[in-house]
Every structure is written in C-alpha cells, then in structure tokens.
Amino acid sequence: MQADAQVHLSQNQQDLLLSIAADNHNDISAEQILQWLSTSPYKSFKPNIQSIEDGLHSRDLSFNMANTNPLSFCIANKLDAQCDFTISADKMSAMLDIITPYGGSGVDIKSILTGLKQRQIFMGISKLNIDKAIAQCQRLPSGSSISVQIARGKAPIHGQDAYLQRLLPLVRERLAQPRLNPDGSVDMRDLGELSSVTPGQLLMRKHPATFGENGYNIHGVTLYAKQGKDCAMIPGTGTELDPRNPLQILATQAGQLVETPNGIQVDNVLMLNGVDIAQGHVDFHGSLLIKGDVQEGMKVKATGNISILGFVENALIEAGGDICVHKGIVGRQERGQKLMTQLRAGGSISAQFAQYAALECMQDIMIASQLLHSHCRTPGCVYVHDKHKYKGELVGGVIEANRGIFAVNIGASAGSITRLSCGQGINQLRLQLKPIETQIQEIVLRQLALNNQIKRLPTKEACLANPNLLSKLKKMQQNRQQLATELLLAEQAAVNLQLQIEQYFEHHRVQAYKRLHVNAEITIDKATHRAICEHGPSVLRCVDGKISFDYQGLTN
C-alpha cells in the first residue's frame, strides 16, 4: 500500500480506518486493500467489503469533482465472539452456538455461565463440553461457527407394569409342536407327553411393578415418572400361593393348566375316547381331552380347555379356555346360510383345517393348512399357515379379526368371494385421544390464569418484605410448576396415543404371503377394496382412508 495511505483504529478501537488523499486516483484498489489486510497486524479483523467499495467510490467522485480533502473509510471491523443458545422444543437439551471472534474477545466460561443463567438453564450442564467448545474456538479461524450440546435433561424412567409369567406350556402349545424324528421328519401323530401338572409344581411367577425414576428438564422442572401398574395374581382352582413366596403359584392337584385373566388354574381333566350318540352330550366343569372324534350333532361344553385329537363334524363346541382340534373341523351349510359346526372359546381356537364352520373366540384363530368357507370372529388375529408359511389357504367365508389376517394364499382362482375385515378397533383409540386433548386445553387455560395472577402481584422486593405475599407467591410458583409437569405428561400421553394411531395399520393389516386372488374383498377400518386381478405377495393396509398395497415391505 502506498506511503500516503494511512491506517488507524477508530476512537472506540473497533473499526480499522484507511485515510487516503482524494487526488490519489486509481492507485489503490479493493484487491490491494484486502491483500494488505491478510498480511497486516490486523489480519484477524473482519474485512468490510461494502465499506471498502463505498469508500473507493467516494474517492472517485471526489477526484472527478476536484475535491482535495482527504478521505477516511472503514476497511475492517474488530468483532467479539458471538454466543447464543438454542433450546429444544421439549426443553430437554440446549445447544451452545458460537461464532469465533474477528480480532475481538473470545468466549470464556464466565460469559457462557452468565448466558445459561439468563436463559434459565440450570440442570444437566456439561462443563466438559463447555471446555471443549472454548478450546475448539481458540484453534479455529475467525468467523468459524460451532454448535455443541452443553445441557441435557434427564427423561423420567417410567416404572414397568407388573406382569405374570407362566412357567409351563398349555395344551394348545403342545399340539402346535409335533415330535421331530431323528431323521428330520415330523410325526404329526406323536405329540409327546400330555401337558399335565403334579401337586406342588411351580406354575406361575409374578414380576412386581417398579416405581420408576423421576427426571428433569434443563430448566430444573421435575418430570415425574409414572409408577408401573400393579396387576392381581389370583390362584384359581387347584392352585395356591406359595407359602414361602407370595409372588408364585403352586399346583395343589394333578390336572391340566388353564390360563385365566389374573392367574392360572389346574382343572380336572376328563379323558374321553370320543363323543357320539352312545356317549351323549358332554358338559364338564374342568378341561376335556378327547382322544377321538366329536361326531355329528353332538354338543361339548367345558369351563376349561377342550383338546380334540380327532375330527369335529357338524358339532357344537364351547370352552371357557382354548379349543385345540388336532386333525380338522368339518361342517356343512344348511339352507339359510346357517353353519352347523360352531366353535366358541374364551381363549384361542386352533386346528389343522376348518371348512364350513363358525369360529368365535377372544384370542387368536390359528389354522395350519386350510380355512374354507367359514365365518370367523375375534378381536385378535386369524392365522392360516403352517410354521414355515409354506401352505395355508383362506378361501371364501367371512373373516372378522380386529388385529389382522395372515395367510399364505387368500381367495381362490375360481373367484369365490372371500370377505375379510380388520382394524375396527382404531375408533377406540381415537375416542381415548379426545379427553386428553381436552385436558391439555384446560391445563393451558389454568396456566394463563395463574400467570396473570402472578403478574398482578407487587414487585418481588415487596413480596419479600411481606410474609403473606411471599407465601402466596411461593404457592403460585409451586402450582405453576405442577401445571407444567401435568401439561408435559398430558402432551406425552397425547403424543404416544397419536403415535399408536399413526402406526395402527402397520400392525393391523391383511397379508398374503404368496398370492391374493380375484374377488377377495378387504375392509380395513372404513376403507374397502375388492381385488379385480390376481396379485403376488401383498400387504394391505389402510393409508389416508384408502386401502394401500405394499409389495415391497413384506414382513414375516
């Protein structure tokens, strides 16, 4: 730079000024100034490009107007480091955002802590991350930006609900696991030993609910943990609480296990070779094991499980527990569309195959090979496939299963109408969301009213001087914190429920593992679709009120 050009700091020491003669035309360019700055003692300053261009333009105008007065303009600025904080929407984390200085003061621990206090960030502060950020700023060029998380709240750890663990298999689980021969083949007739218990045998264990652990957000507001919900464990018939451990149930008699909503019981097991006209109808308080068939026209009722190792043909079967038919269920359709074979269970229904049968239960319906022209109703799932999903034909009939319908092949190439329905339970979730949204609105209104009351109080100094006012202020502040916690919990409940609703049809769906045939009519929630052509492996869900096909995201 020329000798008649002088640089000096402004009076506030923040701006670097260049003074030049007005008649010094075209001798100094913006590039020369920037080049000089990059090697000068002021190289850490921030070049002021706009001011340089404006200053040189003024010089040119002065030269043209024969103005001989010297010109002075800013070419660079001295800037301190910029420090700001970004708080997450849930108030569970805070980021420190820093722009390194241009020749000015850098950030230090004191200025950062002061900023945290001003933003009311008190909890979860990481001094290690603050020190790392300060050290990193000292190594970076001027004007560099960094962002570091320096505070993190602690989410509450909600308690786990109590649950009951059954320690022995049920009959239906035994029937689903035929014996594997040493050569790898499966003997469908050999089901192993009967699932029975002996007195004193341990049947069930209760895992108690846990209390959870409170958390906090970065402002120090306590986030209260939900205590896990307890559940009753009630010993049923043929069982008792372990005298040495009240969290365990022991058998007091030999028999067959029957799972109940709040525990387990051991039923007397009545074994029959078969049920026919000679045997007569059966109505038994306990569980039944029928080694042969249930013949046409017969009625079999039991308060426990019913296990049938043969066939069921045009009969009525009712069980308080599970119904397991090892071979198959055979029926026929009378005039007026009435199905003569009917099975009703308080638990699940499982069979090798079923045709022209009415199946109704409170849990799942599991058919290993074929479900033909039957009517099924359950709040659970309907599965029509073997263990490896190699075979499983669902053809005709009406299937209503809230949680979903899964089969290897759905429908038939002959075009038999197969009506499937699932996902009707989403309305219950939607109804549960409404009172939570109302609760959130009420809490917000209470917060606004409380804040207005606090604003109307005298100054803080006046409150400190008046014990009554101070007590009132403290109570209001406690109420405000309690409302904040209630609002957070309600919002979390709403988010969780909304997430369940959004993900509902990921799980409540219809799935054909190999083929979906023509005339399969599917209803999910209120959306309906009828297949007009044959499809390969398909997953059908309800998306935005319409049936959506997914040929890629297949799940087993």
Protein model, in words:
The chain is α/β, with parallel strands linked by helices. The protein contains eight helices and 43 strands. The strands form nine sheets. Strands 21, 23, 25, 26, 28, 30, 32, 34, 35, 37, 39, 42 and 43 form a 13-stranded mixed sheet that branches. Strands 22-24-27-29-31-33-36-38-40-41 form a ten-stranded mixed sheet, with no helix packed on it. Strands 1-2-4-3 form a four-stranded antiparallel sheet. Strand 19 and strand 20 (263-267) form a beta hairpin. Helix 6 (426-455) runs antiparallel to helix 8 (467-507). It is elongated and about 130 Å long. Residues 187-194 and 552-556 have low confidence and may be disordered.
Brief descriptors of the model:
24% helix, alpha/beta, 556 residues, ten-stranded mixed beta sheet
How does the SSE layout of this entry go?
Elements: E1 6-9, E2 15-20, H1 30-39, E3 46-47, H2 49-64, E4 71-77, E5 82-87, E6 93-99, H3 109-118, H4 127-139, E7 145-152, E8 157-158, E9 163-166, H5 171-175, E10 179-180, E11 186-187, E12 202-207, E13 212-213, E14 215-216, E15 222-223, E16 234-235, E17 239-242, E18 245-251, E19 256-260, E20 263-267, E21 269-272, E22 282-284, E23 287-290, E24 299-302, E25 306-308, E26 311-313, E27 316-319, E28 323-330, E29 341-345, E30 349-355, E31 357-361, E32 365-372, E33 375-378, E34 381-384, E35 393-395, E36 398-401, E37 404-410, E38 418-422, H6 426-455, H7 460-465, H8 467-507, E39 509-516, E40 520-524, E41 527-530, E42 538-543, E43 546-550
Parallel strand pairs: 16-20, 21-23, 22-24, 23-25, 24-27, 25-28, 26-28, 27-29, 28-30, 29-31, 30-32, 31-33, 32-34, 32-35, 33-36, 34-37, 35-37, 36-38, 37-39, 38-40
Antiparallel strand pairs: 1-2, 2-4, 3-4, 5-6, 6-7, 8-13, 9-12, 10-11, 12-18, 14-15, 17-18, 19-20, 39-42, 40-41, 42-43
